[in-house]
User: What shape does this take?
Amino acid sequence: MNLKQFLALLGFLFVAAWIAFNFGDAILCLVGAALFYAVGAVLDGELNLSDVQARIQRQQGGQPGRAR
Assistant: This one.
């Protein structure tokens, strides 16, 4: 399955959840899926939380007028 097919399936499932439940529940399903995906990425070593934190701190430090 390539990326376009996966995204088409994800879109179909989102609309099916929207129809079956309601929009709020469908959004909640997406949020839950994103959280579990992030946990899986951390456990597989694909996502390094210290790198993410360093990137956020660099972005906040580079914006003028922001208090630290």
Notes: The chain is about 80% helix and 0% strand. Residues 34 and 43 are 14 Å apart (CA to CA). The helical segments are 3-20, 23-44, 49-61.
